[in-house]
Amino acid sequence: MLRSLTLVFFFSLTFASQALAQPASPPAAPPKLGPYLYETKPDDPAFASFNPRRAPQPGELLLRKGDRLAICGDSITEQKMYSRLIETYLTVCVPELQITARQYGWSGEKTDGFLRRMEKDCLTFSPTIATLAYGMNDSRYRPFDVTNGQWYEDHYTAIVRKFKANDVRVVVGSPGCAGKIATWVKSRSGTLEQHNLNLCALRDIAIGVAQAEQVRFADIFWPMLQAQVFAPAQHDATEEKPYRVAGSDGIHPGWAGQVIMAWTMLRSLGLDGDLGTIEIDTDKNTATANGGHSIDSYADGVATVTSTRYPFCARGTLHSENSIRSGMTLVPFNEDLNRFLLKVNAATGTKWEITWGNQTQTYTAEELAQGIHLAWEFPENPFSESFDRVDAAVAKKQAYETLQVKKNFHGPEGRKDFDAAVKETEAVRKPLADAIADAMQPVTHQIAIRQVAGE
Questions:
Q1: Distance between alpha carbon 415 and the CA centroid of its chain, in Å?
Q2: How do residues 225-248 score in pLDDT, each as one tens digit?
Q3: Which Pfam family would be a valid example here (predicted)?
Q4: What global pTM score does this model have?
C-alpha cells in the first residue's frame, strides 16, 4: 500500500514537473477593432440625426467584355428609368465592352421575394454580373428595429451568395431615401425622419453585406438624401413647382432622382468616364482625337470627326425633377462618367466661337485649354438623334422584359411549361435586343472653331 502511494506521488511530481517545464502559451491576439468611419455630413440641421457609415470607394473596372448584366430590384427598378440609363450608357459610352442587359424589377418586392424567384427569372439567362437595389420595401415603412435589420441582412446575403455560387459578380445597392410617408402602405408607422433613419440603417447593413461577401457597394441613399435637401434651392423650386428628388409620391424618383441611382451604380462598376478627347492646335493647324474618335480631315478651322463612341446626351430643362439633364447637376455625372472633351490650344487672352451641329458657343482660350464637356455644353448636338434611337430601342426591350417575367414566366404559360415559355418569349425579345445593336452606328460630325473678331 505504501509502495503504491509512493509511486502515485512520484508520477504526480513527474507530470507536474513536465507541465511546469512546458513553455507558456502565447497570449491570445487582441481582437481587431475598427476603423469606425463616418461619412462627412453637410452643415445643415436636416442631417443632425444621421450618422451614416463611410461607404467603400469604387474600385477598378468590374465589367468584362461580353458581360451579361442583370439589373435587379423592386418597383423603383420596374420603373425602367435608372435601368434604362445604365443600359443606354453601357451601349453607347463603352461599346467596346459589348455589354448586354436585362432588367428584373418587380413592384412591391423585398429581398425575400427576389431570393425566391431569382433561380428561374434571372439565373436561367446566365448573367455574369448583377446590380441589386433593395431596401425600400424591406424597411416596412416604419422605424428601424434590430430584428428586421437582421432579416434584411440575412436575405440580402443569401442573394449575394447565390449569385456568387453561379459565378456572378455583384454590386449591392442601398435603398434610396424617402421624400414623403408612403400613405398607401396600411402598416406604416413613424415620422418621415424615422423612416429615413431606418433606410440609412439598412444602407449601413448593405455596406456590411458587401464587405463581408467581398463584392461592390453602390450608395444610393446618402447622395439622394443630400440632393433632396439641397436641390429645391439649387433649382428655384416653389410650392407651385416643387423639386422632389424622391418623386411626387416620395418613394419613386422621377428622372432627376433616377440619374443619381444610375450614377452610383455605374461608378460602382469601376467605369472611369473617359469618353475621348478632341484636340485642336491653332498654332500648328492640327487636330487629333482619341478614345473612339478619329479625325477624317482638318482645314480652315473645321475638324471632321468619325466617332464609334457616343457621349451621354441629355436635353431638357435644368430646373425640373423630371429632367435627366437636371439630374446630372445633382451629382458629378459629367466629371465622373461623361468626359467627352474638346481642348483647343490658342493664344492667351483670345476668345473663340465653337460651332458643333446647329449650336454655337463662345469660350475664352483659357477655358478651351482646360477642356469643355461637349455633350453638356451642347445639349442638342450631332449625336442626339443617334443617341435617341439607341435609347428608344433600350426602352422598348426593357418594357418587354417586364411582361416576359411577370406575365409569361409567372402566368399560366410559365406555370404550365416554364422552358417552353422561355423559348417562346426569347424569340420575341431577340429582335428587340438586336435593334439596340443595330441602332448603335458610327457618327460623323464637324467641329468648327473661329476666333472672335477683335479678340
A1: 33
A2: 999 999 999 999 999 999 999 999
A3: Lipase_GDSL_2
A4: 0.93
